[in-house]
Specification:
The complex is a heterodimer of chains A (363) and B (294). Chain A is α+β, with helices and mostly antiparallel strands. Chain A has 8 helices and 20 strands. Chain A is elongated. Chain B has 2 domains: 76 residues, no CATH class; 144 residues, MetI-like fold, CATH 1.10.3720.10. Chain B is globular, with a radius of gyration of 24 Å. The two termini of chain B are 47 Å apart. With 294 residues, chain B is mostly helical. The chains are: A alpha+beta (363), B mainly alpha (294). Chains A and B meet through β6 and α2 of A and α9 and α10 of B.
Chain lengths: 363, 294
């Protein structure tokens, strides 16, 4: 039995459908992310799980029990809010103690647990501070401690890192992941930031316009996207149209439109003779003057070149195909010749690298 | 100018200081001085022939001695508790209304709600208070309705009672309580209420542990705005309380218009000022104490 089961949940606001029949299982102990652009319904779903909104249709089960009728304060679920929502009239200690006081926890145990929780987020010496005197990262940690101290069955995090600067964000990603591992509490994390979701999650559900495009382990979502939307949302990707020639054990031979015949992965059911999209991630591709031994590829002209420090991003015009994005990170064994805009070369990849992305189902 | 951006020169306060000095401090000092004098035979002030004797005999304190006689202390006492009840009454009526306007009403109607709160200010206070005479008198609207629906058999004597004065006071001061409470509730972050519920607080607990303490500044501001004018009111008690309900305001007013004893009026006014300051100080202290408890 999954810890949380979302079953065909629908939520409408006025005429607009915010969540359009979403089903989802979250297992105990998982770090699960709901990823999608703003307005895709992920936050609405989170608010329904917390109890701040009621679904119009469908069920929400926790440990096999329908929790729709429970008000938020009766659910063994806690939330880390986007803007932290710390109580401004209470100091850090009392903010963290708020939930324990509501649960009538004895004073001695309360002190012990609050102190322990503050130590866990490295704020042990900040107990007497008022929230107004904390930095963004510290407020974030207090919000986290305040929710974790109650040892919830499920912790909801609503874009908790959205307000932090880049460096702090990266640091908090690692801390969050470590906290989740150490506590064993199930995290349900909402974000629109795809590297963040990939960094932290065991599994990711990619949302678009109120429904789930794909729910799968982080690596599968990136390497084997189930729809073109997922392929594009998780980083730049090249989607080339191709005709399927042969299919066997998860691989297929395809004819790229106006390109070579290549071998590709086919993680989803594929019909011979159909037209499909083949995904080639920019960092899977190489660029050189000639075609290296053992690779497949196509002639290309460098249209644009963007130096980005550790890597360089090229936009290539290829004969008959759409523009290709290539990201080269020079290093051992990499096919990475630094060609300037206007020069021609060959874009290449090891045969079998591409992945077939099924067309979006009709909705 | 060596003024840095974001700093404000102190002379910006000078118009207000001038008004405060000539409108408040100076008159108050004159009131204090004149309160030590005696009234003349035909009103006005009696001449002081020998200042040394006047001071040493203690005659300069006579007005204050009189103001502290039991009959006047009773008036002070009644004014104080009437003002306290008025403040509490306003709070009980204003808080739910302010909450509803700030958080219950659809956002586009909010300004209409606030407008309705201040609309009464567009008519004269005397006219509005007189409307209460028509509502409360024996053949008035309220009695007619109550008898009409069979709730009572005989009309009640409502007008010219302390109840009538209280109703008038609460009615008159209500907007001054609603507006500051509205201001503090309107800026309350909804996610704080959700956070409280999320952490296990029922609606009731959320109110007492989060909403109430965060709205206290508005409540305190409203209480001061209602309490202070209630202490000095004389119009409402005159019109709705009749001769039975004398408040400090009436007592002072009478010294100037009926009693022709301005120095005694000054003394009573000064005692009233001290009393109000004392009660406000006490209130500030109570609020501070309760905030520390939370």
């Amino acid at each position: 039995m999954p810890l949380l089961r979302i079953d065909k949940v629908v939520k409408r606001f006025g005429g607009a459908v915010a969540v359009a029949g979403v089903s989802l299982d979250v297992e105990a102990g998982e770090f699960f992310s709901m990823l999608g652009p703003s307005g895709c319904g992920k936050t609405t779903l989170l608010r329904m799980i917390a109890g701040f909104e009621n679904p119009d249709e469908g069920r929400i089960e926790l440990d096999g029990t329908d929790i729709r009728a429970l008000p938020p304060h009766r659910r063994p679920i806690n939330t880390v809010f986007q803007q932290y929502a710390l109580f401004p009239h209470l100091n850090v200690f009392e903010n963290v103690a708020f939930g324990l006081r509501r649960a009538q926890v004895g004073e001695a145990e309360l002190r012990r647990r609050v102190t322990e929780s503050l130590d866990q987020v490295q704020l042990g010496t900040f107990a007497e501070r008022m929230p107004a005197m904390l930095s963004g990262g510290q407020k974030q940690r207090v919000a986290l401690a305040r929710a974790l101290v109650l040892r919830p069955r499920l912790l909801l995090l609503d874009e908790p890192l959205g307000a932090l600067d880049h460096q702090l964000r990266l640091q908090m990603q690692v801390e969050l992941k470590n906290l989740q591992r150490a506590s064993g509490i199930t995290f349900l994390f909402v974000t629109h930031d795809q590297p963040e979701a990939l960094t932290m999650s065991d599994r990711i559900a990619v949302f678009s316009r109120g429904h789930i495009e794909q729910a799968a382990p982080a690596r599968a979502v990136y390497d084997e996207p189930a729809t073109p939307f997922v392929a594009r949302f998780l980083g730049a990707s090249n989607l080339l149209s191709a005709e399927v020639l042969r299919v066997a054990d998860g691989t297929a031979q395809v004819q790229l439109t106006a390109g070579p015949k290549v071998l590709v992965k086919a993680p989803y059911p594929t019909v011979v003779g159909s037209t499909v999209s083949v995904m080639l991630r920019p960092e899977w591709l190489g660029l050189s003057r000639g075609l290296p031994e053992g690779r497949v590829g196509a002639p290309a002209v460098v249209r644009d070149r963007l130096y980005q420090g550790a890597s360089t991003r090229y936009t290539l015009a290829t004969l008959g195909m759409e523009d290709l994005e290539v990201v080269l990170t020079p290093g051992f064994g990499a096919v990475a010749e630094d060609l300037m805009p206007g020069t021609s070369g060959v874009v290449s990849w090891p045969d079998g690298t591409g992945v077939i992305v099924p067309a979006s189902p009709e909705r | 100018m060596s003024q840095k951006a974001g700093q404000s020169p102190p002379w910006l306060a000078s118009p207000a200081l001038l008004v405060l000095f000539f409108g408040m401090l100076l008159p108050l000092a004159m009131v204090l001085l004149d309160s030590f004098r005696q009234r003349g035979v035909y009103g006005g002030f009696a001449e002081i022939e020998d200042l040394g004797l006047y001071l040493s005999s203690g005659a300069w304190l006579a007005n204050y001695e009189r103001a502290l006689e039991p009959i006047y202390l009773k008036i002070f006492w009644r004014s104080s508790w009437m003002a306290v009840v008025t403040t509490l009454g306003c709070l009980v009526v204003a808080y739910p209304l302010a909450w509803w306007i700030a958080r219950g009403m659809p956002e586009r109607w909010r300004s209409v709600g606030l407008l309705l709160v201040v609309v009464p200010f567009w008519t004269s206070f005397v006219v509005r208070t007189f409307a209460w005479v028509w509502i409360l008198r024996t053949e008035g609207l309220l009695n007619q309705v109550l008898v009409g629906i069979g709730l009572i058999d005989e009309p009640l004597a409502l007008l010219y009672t302390e109840w009538a004065v209280l109703i008038g006071l609460i009615y008159g001061e209500l907007p001054f309580m609603i507006l500051p409470i509205y201001a503090s509730l309107e800026k309350l972050d909804t996610s704080l209420l959700e956070a409280a519920a999320d952490l296990g607080a029922s609606a009731w607990t959320t109110f007492w542990k989060v909403v109430w303490p965060l709205s206290l500044p508005g409540v305190v501001a409203g209480a001061v705005l209602v309490f202070v004018p209630s202490m000095g009111q004389f119009l409402i008690s005159d019109m709705l309380g009749g001769a039975k309900s004398v408040l400090v305001g009436n007592l002072i007013q009478n010294q100037f218009f009926g009693g022709k004893n301005a120095p005694f009026g000054f003394a009573v006014a000064f005692v009233l000022t001290l009393l109000v300051l004392g009660i406000l100080a006490l209130q500030a202290r109570l609020v501070k104490g309760s905030q520390e408890l939370l």
